[in-house]
Amino acid sequence: MSFPNDFLWGGATSSVQYEGGFDQGGRGLGHMDFIPCLTEEQRKTQPSTFNQSLEAFERIQAHEDEYNLAYRRGTDFYHRYKEDIALFAEMGFKCFRMSISWPRLFPTGEEALPNPEGIRFYHDVFDELHKYGIEPVVTMIHYEIPLHLTLAYNGWESRKTLEAYCRYARVLLDEYQDDVTYWITFNEINMTTHAPFIGGGLFVEKTQKKNAQSCMWQALHHQFVASARTVRYCHETAPQCKIGLMINRQEIYAQTCNPLDELRALKDDQFNFSFLDVAARGAYSNVMLSFVRENDIDVIMEEGDVRDLAAARIDFVAISYYMTWVVSGDEAKQEPLGAFVRTLRNPYLELSEWDWPIDPVGLRITLNRIYDRYGLPIMIVENGFGARDEVVLEDGEKRIHDDYRIDYLRSHIQEVGNAIDDGVEVLGYTPWGCIDLVSASKTEMSKRYGFIYVDADDAGEGTYDRFRKDSFYWYQKVCESNGADLG
Ligand code: BG6
Q1: Mean pLDDT in residue range 281-294
Q2: What lines the ligand 1 site, CB under 6 Å?
Q3: Residue at 2 is within a domain
Q4: 143-197, pLDDT tens digit by residue?
Q5: Separation of 441 CA from ligand 1 center, angstroms?
Q6: pLDDT exceeds 70 at position 465
Q7: Are 213 and 204 in contact (CB under 8 A)?
Q8: What is the crossing angle of helices 77-91 and 116-131, to 10°?
Q9: Whether residue 329 has pLDDT greater than 90
Q10: Can you give the residue range of the structural domain that contains 407?
Q11: Ligand 1 centroid to 143 CA: how many Å?
């Protein structure tokens, strides 16, 4: 396996799940600051915390103290970034994917100038990373918008949010273009239509549009335009930078070779790709246009939007890859694993405790497919194994023997190497949640991804001290050997 010499080994996080310090340094409130951690009981019945009703939001806002609002704490990067970056450096990271907290820079989203304390904070973080030769990979928005934009304009449903994002993104590029080479305009842009609250800051019940679908697709359209304008601005003002867009990639398998299963797989796969098509090809795909037409979705495009989309092409594709899905052409056979993971059971794959299928070869397949389609370099900015870790005391030291995580990552890295040997251009690999942070689908700490254990539980209790898991030492060897030593 031949990883290129400049391959970016690293790890990934998001400000909303990791940063904390929600009421410090002049940060404003974000819409995710009102999503509560579920109780053990709720977790069994509620598929995810991805959506938040206006009614639930108002209840929480009125009685904040009664709720466990985990995103406000994250796992405290805000106060511990020096310690954490030193640990990343010890592991041999070449890059670190993080996101900027929009409400930290623009507390309401509508200020004319950014919050200087917020600006300083990220300069300090980037300086610290560069001290160790670690390249920041920065997502401009990862499920976090100023709460004010959600309340006043229903988030991305409004062009006001589009304009506010463009101002914010321009500030990021003007301010940090010497510190950051790799930018991602949106985390998983395809989540807005699955998870309208977290992806779009939307209360769909508040929409001015004719139905909830139109609300989500209007928001998505605004995000595409915002991304395209930002890509163009980056190319014009910071040509040394590389800018991409990210989707949650779902490689789709047909359940059998019945042509109807294959057709359904093709359609679902095209649909997943169509989110990238806009940014990589500069226009909506026919698949997306047909979907909008057939589903009575009403999206207003202003003059100039089509031109904006056409005037920008991303430099690289960013993906999260966790699993593959199996589909059937026969609706009657569609019995998905769960309300959240809506794939049929693949008899060849094992599942995680959260019923996420484990499919390393699927990563090689998907990398090949993406590269064939766009011919653009790919950065795998999320992949990883969420699991419950057990801390054991040995010789007075806390240890976490996470062989299951090592196995998962090893098998996936092998397939990244195979894809590179197939001829795919892969820029880097940043496993998700390289340090434990708040998990997104159910807002919990119990589901951990890190190489570094954080002593905090679902209730937010704990010292927040950091401990190296076995996977920490394993990944250190992977980085040191440029992927040659997978243990
Ligand atoms: C990705 C998101 O979809 O999946 C992350 O970009 C998220 O924010 C990750 O944390 C893993 O999901 P979860 O639910 O296990 O935290």
Answers
A1: 96
A2: 14, 17, 187-188, 248, 320, 382, 386, 432, 439-441, 447
A3: no
A4: 999 999 999 999 999 999 999 999 999 999 999 999 999 999 999 999 998 899 9
A5: 6
A6: yes
A7: no
A8: 20
A9: yes
A10: 8-480
A11: 10
Instruction: Say if 485 falls within a structural domain.
Output: no
Mutate to test the pocket of ligand 1, among 17, 35, 382 (most ligand atoms within 8 A of CB): 382
Q: Tell me the best of 16, 439, 445 to mutate to test the pocket of ligand 1, counting ligand atoms within 8 Å of each CB and taking the most.
A: 439
Q: Are 447 and 354 spatial neighbours (Cβ–Cβ below 8 Å)?
A: yes
Give me the amino acid identity at 302: E
Q: Which two tokens stand for residue 121?
A: 């904070």
* Number of domain units in the chain: 1
Within 321-398, residue ranges assigned H as helices are 360-374
Range of lowest pLDDT (34-48, 102-116, 126-140, 196-210): 34-48
Q: Is residue 1 part of a domain?
A: no
- Active-site residue 353, yes or no? no
Q: How far is the CA of 51 from the centre of ligand 1 (A)?
A: 14
What CATH code is carried by the domain that includes residue 44? 3.20.20.80
Q: What is the DSSP letter of 110?
A: -
Q: Which spans in 206-248 are helix H?
A: 212-237
Domain membership of residue 79 (yes or no) is yes
Checking if the pLDDT of 47 tops 80, the result is: no
Q: Is 188 a catalytic residue?
A: yes
